[in-house]
Write a structure and sequence with these properties.
377 residues, mainly beta, Methylamine Dehydrogenase, Chain H
Length: 377
């Protein structure tokens, strides 16, 4: 494979101030992104003027206030269930969703079963009670403001990647103390993380790190090809899969014990990735489809058309969730039938959705909120 001579667009700084969202670390055409954002903001402003006459404009975007009051308030809306007309899945507003105002644009969320842990563009980690939605704690993190990105509760600790500070940290949620810090290398990341048993995997520049989630020991550093711009990570089929926003655009498959990297080339720049029993699912930043990559062969076997460009991807059982922030929706794809089965109209620029039992947690980036969506059968 030859090394490309052209350098990829570096949009991290260009998009950060405008979007303050997960998209700022992905590779997309800056002019197209700015155009889509401006169109979206114009629609938001028009909607806000009609729905809330006299509402004040925020610094960058006029947020449409769906509710007023505390974090346990509820919206009244149709049930969050499949709504098919002529074979098409139409978006519905979920009924009974609870909102928690985080106060800043939010990124990702993870839960230990009692508390949802939310990262935002400040340098803190916010704990939200799953039952009721009250903010229970705020933990200050080291590093630059806006660094906190991915979050993974493991055992008694909560791990956070600090994307602007070259470090992955573990905090004790009972004391708020940072108990482990693992330095990373390179000028990008760390970004995505994934848990496999007692191992925590994290991407950082052209490296993949394996960390003991209990002790904080750095167990392994895997060197990826020097052109790699690693973004997200998932574990499936005994392998670790990394999205490389490139160019070249690809998913890299690392097989522990064999010290081997196998690329799967993609038609566009990938973003989030998540694992199901026999596959990994990959969203692409500037193409409205979700790709299924077989965990055994490494081949792209299916493409699921989406109504908007995807960003973060998570999976719980057969349900694969994709954030579609540009259209204020999240999508559910069934891994068994490999079809789009549900669309939820939720939040303002929602990049991330993650299911825990019968609850879906959605980060509303521009709204600065965590949305707790009860899922029906």
């Amino acid at each position: 494979m030859t090394t490309p001579t052209t350098q990829p667009w570096d949009l991290e700084r260009a998009l950060e101030s405008a979007l303050a969202a997960e998209a700022d670390v992905a590779e997309i055409d800056v002019h197209a992104a700015a155009s889509r954002l401006e169109e979206r903001l114009d629609r938001s402003r028009r909607t806000a003027r009609v729905a809330l006459a006299g509402a004040a404009a925020a610094a960058v975007v006029l947020v449409v206030l769906l509710v007023q009051g505390g974090p346990d308030d509820r919206r009244s809306a149709p049930p969050a269930e499949d709504d098919r007309q002529g074979g098409q899945v139409t978006a519905v507003v979920p009924q009974g969703a609870g909102l928690t105002d985080i106060g800043q644009p939010v990124y990702r969320v993870g839960s230990d079963g009692r508390t949802a842990w939310v990262t935002d563009q400040t340098q803190r980690l916010t704990g939200v009670a799953l039952d009721g939605g009250d903010i229970t704690t705020r933990i200050e993190l080291p590093g630059e403001d806006g660094s906190a990105f991915d979050v993974e509760p493991v055992g008694d600790l909560v791990w956070v990647s600090l994307r602007l500070s070259n470090v992955v940290v573990a905090v004790d949620p009972r004391t708020g103390e940072v108990v482990h810090q693992v330095r990373t290398t390179g000028d990008r990341g760390p970004f995505g993380m994934a848990v496999d048993g007692g191992d925590l995997w994290s991407t950082a520049g052209a490296t993949l790190l394996r960390i003991d989630a209990a002790t904080g020991d750095l167990l392994d550093t895997i060197q990826l090809p020097p052109t790699t711009r690693a973004y997200d990570v998932a574990v499936a089929g005994g392998s670790v899969w990394v999205t490389d926003v490139g160019p070249p655009f690809r998913v890299l498959r690392y097989q522990p014990g064999r010290d081997r990297l196998v690329p799967t080339l993609l038609p566009a720049s990938p973003a989030g990735i998540a694992a199901t029993a026999d596959a990994v699912w990959v969203a692409m930043v500037a193409r409205p489809e979700l790709l299924r990559v077989d965990a055994e062969s490494g081949l792209v076997t299916d493409r699921v058309e989406l109504p908007g460009n995807g960003l973060a991807v998570t999976a719980t059982g057969p349900s694969v969730w994709v954030g579609l922030p540009e259209i204020d929706q999240v999508a559910e794809v069934d891994a068994r039938s490999r079809r789009l089965v549900r669309l939820l109209q939720v939040g303002s620029y929602p990049p991330f959705a993650r299911q825990y039992g019968d609850m879906l947690l959605v980060t509303s980036n521009l709204g600065g909120e965590l949305v707790r969506v009860p899922l029906g059968d």
